[in-house]
Amino acid sequence: MAKKVMVIPANPTGISKVAKKNGRKTRVAAYCRVSTDNDQLGSFENQLEYFRNMIDERDDWELAGLFSDEGISGTGTKHRSGFMDMIQACEDGRVDLVITKSVSRFARNTADCLLFSRRLKNLGIPIIFEKEGLNTMDASGELLFTVLSSLAQEESRNISENTAWGIRSKFQQGIAHLNTTSILGYDKGEDGSLVINEEQAVVVRRIYRDFMDGWTVSEISRRLNVEGVPGVHGVAKWYPSTIESVIRNEKHVGDLLMQKTYTSDFLTKRQIANNGKLEQYFIRDDHPAIIPRDEWDAAQLELERREAFRLRHGLRVTGSSIDDPFYSRVFCEACGGKLIRHYWKGCNGAFWKCKNAEKRKGHICQAANVRESTLHSAVVAAWNEIVDSRQDRLTGWEEALETGNALQRHRARLMIAVTAEGPLDTEVPELTRMFLEEVIVHGREELEVHFLDGSRVRVSFEDGAAEVA
């Protein structure tokens, strides 16, 4: 006896099975994206209005949401909050169908296209691409979708390469491609050139001045944060790396170096430093300077000096959290270790102790501790020796003014000016920070003071009294 077979009509699109079963309308979500690649942002509202009207005209559809990303590239999903909100709505069971203008609007990354289309397909949610007439639930849909998404990705690559070529062509003509919202001290003028933002320029000048006065980048950033000094984006959010980038920025001296970075991957948009892989373009005196050239050159040399100093002494950081001018500037002659400040009750004042005086790496340094009062007295005695012998040292400083580099000239000017003010009675932190390179401790009663102009003075102590050797 033949069996009676009931034929269930096919539903190749997979649309709204649940909706039909429950007797309700199909919940439709529309996704729109307008990027800055080659679209006019003015069409964005038109896309939203178009899909809103399309859904309203269907009696069996209801709007489940208009999801959108404006001015964002489609090569990735990391920054596409609207796209990810749509995916979440689908996974939450609030959407039966997704419609979008085209494959390239959905994503220009083949991997993303396939990943998210399959994720929705597994949920029984089709995606309809209006321009291509493609439904991901169709039997041949995924194959065609893969081809089209690959073409969209290749189109994005071409757009990226053409954009980069256009920017580099402008570089060759001396036309900068700048985002002035991230350049402290400058705005973009009507003609596209850099003009000084005087309010921010005050901060730029302070950073250079503090740096050349001996403050470290970590100390400068902390002081700016504590004082609530706004940065380039209007908030007090400073880091040591931010301060260093300000000091290194050639724009502050009026020059312009183009193509410092480049996009290594058009999909991720990852920017990496251009260390010679691509050509760079340099224009001297391109725009008004905030920092005089001699001062800027001196700051670059000082950055190099501090890095060499850090490496020579094996230091991780050089800045002090308590703004101590001796921090990371006092070293043990016996083992080369850094002396660290301690203060214990009953010790009659602070003292400095070699970091290797405790067991480190299998050895113990036997160097004696040095009282802070001794350290201060040694620096005062050494400075006064420089002042007493000023006349003999003037020739060297004047020669540095004539033939030295920018940093040597800077040091010489300071030494000539400040030593003319006479000797010191007590240690002055501002002067110590400005002029001291390091103190080498030869023992409890003998220290060698090195100044940044190259002067070196050995000081010994007899019955507590400082005596210059």
Q: What does this protein structure show overall?
A:
There is one protein chain. This protein is α+β, with helices and mostly antiparallel strands and 469 residues long. The protein has three domains: 17-155, Resolvase, N-terminal catalytic domain (Rossmann fold, 3-Layer(aba) Sandwich), CATH 3.40.50; 180-300, Hect, E3 ligase catalytic domain fold (Alpha-Beta Complex), CATH 3.90.1750; 330-468, no CATH class. The protein has helices spanning 17-22, 44-57, 81-91, 103-106, 110-122, 141-172, 198-212, 217-227, 240-248, 293-312, 372-388, 390-403, 406-419, 429-435, and strands at 26-34, 61-70, 97-100, 127-129, 134-135, 186-188, 194-196, 256-258, 261-265, 270-273, 281-283, 330-332, 339-342, 351-354, 370-371, 436-443, 446-451, 456-462, 465-468. It has a five-stranded mixed beta sheet with strand order 2-1-3-4-5, sandwiched between helices. A five-stranded mixed beta sheet has the order 12-16-17-18-19. Strands 13-14-15 form a three-stranded antiparallel beta sheet. A hairpin with a 4-residue loop joins strand 9 (261-265) and strand 10. The model is unreliable at 5-19, 37-42 and 163-168 (pLDDT under 50).
CATH architecture of the largest domain: 3-Layer(aba) Sandwich
Q: Helicity, in percent?
A: 25-40%
Rg, rounded, reads 34 Å
CATH superfamily of the largest domain: Resolvase, N-terminal catalytic domain
Order of strands, main sheet, comes to: 2-1-3-4-5
Strand content: 15-25%
